[in-house]
Amino acid sequence: MSIKDQTKKIKKDFLERLDNCSSYDGSQIIKNDYLGRKGKLSELYSKLQSLPRSEKAYAGKQINDIKIFLSQKIESFTSSFTEKKSDLDKKDFTLPGDPHPLGSIHPITLVSEQIKDIFSKLGFSLAYGPEVDTEFFNFDALNIKDDHPARDMQDTFYIEPGVVLRTHTSNTQIHTMLKKDPPIKIIAPGRVYRNEDISVRSYCLFHQIEGLYIDKNVTFGDLKGLLNYFAKEFFGENVKTRFRPSFFPFTEPSAEMDIYWGLETESDYRITKGTGWLEILGCGMVDPEVFKSVKIDSEKWTGYAFGMGIERMAMLKYGIHDIRLFYEGDIRVLRQFR
């Protein structure tokens, strides 16, 4: 085959391979196969020596022409890749990277962990219960009768007849008392659900921490001392508290605990309804009917229980006036808590 025919074949094969190439590395392999020291054009140059002198000039020109053609094609094809490569070459990879802002802990988590830490130091263990539970654990065993308003569909999400999304973490207390003999000293944190309108002060999902202590000779005075200690640890030594008689089906006697919020601004008047006091939790001595449901002898054992909403505590601690801010995921709000 003549030099002319060989250069035509080289050109045809080269263009076919280049058409099927899609990367810089692939183009360099093609370049080396045709223009390298041991490439196809190098083989043609070595054949010039065996040609008659009269043919060498013409054959040499053909080889040079195809070499220029192939070189231009390769250079044109790889220009976009080499531009990108040159941009990378200009970067100094020893410089520090762009700063990435650190995430923050959600205020609900911050407050929950602080509350758990306070009670853990007082000997309370953590207990968890199911978020989907039967009416027995959520209502019946807690002395909440069939005609109690809390059992109405307006307040409770029913999964199916007899099965609900728990409306409080008190169901964990029942599970614990059925599994464990007294003395019992637990706190039960978790999410709870109520079929309420979403507003500045209420949401259909929120978080609670409930406490339960059962032992011999437990008194209401013990409960008051515990909760006063908690308030000082959480809100500071200067916090003012008070207890007001109340009613809960699962405790008797029952009370609500308030802290003094103040009356310095219009917002204070609105939040405290003009009293300056704000309720933070409900509490009381465990009702003997509850002990009867879990087969604990109320003549031998006494106990107290309390429960608080984490969102309410977070709103008080951080001065947040709209509960919806906890759930909207607005990074401008959340980044304030680190």
The helix count comes to 12
The N- to C-terminal Cα distance equals 79 Å
CATH architectural grouping of the largest domain: 2-Layer Sandwich
CATH topology of the largest domain, by name, is: BirA Bifunctional Protein, domain 2
Rg from alpha-carbon coordinates = 40 Å
Q: Note the overall shape.
A: elongated
Share of helical residues:
40-55%
Biggest β-sheet, characterized? 7 strands, mixed
Mean pLDDT: 86
The name of the CATH superfamily of the largest domain reads: Bira Bifunctional Protein, Domain 2
Instruction: Record the strand order, biggest sheet.
Output: 1-5-6-10-9-8-7
Top-tier CATH class of the largest domain: Alpha Beta
> Any idea how many domains?
2
Q: Which structural category fits the helices and strands?
A: alpha+beta
Which stretches are poorly predicted, pLDDT < 50 over at least 5 residues? Answer: none
Order of helices and strands: HHHHHEEHEEHEEHEEHEHEHH
Descriptive notes:
With 338 residues, the protein is of the alpha+beta class. The chain has two domains: 88 residues; 228 residues, BirA Bifunctional Protein, domain 2, CATH 3.30.930.10. Helices cover 43% and strands 20% of the residues. It is built from twelve helices and ten strands. The chain has a seven-stranded mixed β-sheet with strand order 1-5-6-10-9-8-7, sandwiched between helices. Strands 2-4-3 form a three-stranded antiparallel β-sheet. Helix 1 packs parallel to helix 4 and helix 2 packs antiparallel against helix 4. It starts with a helix and ends with a helix.
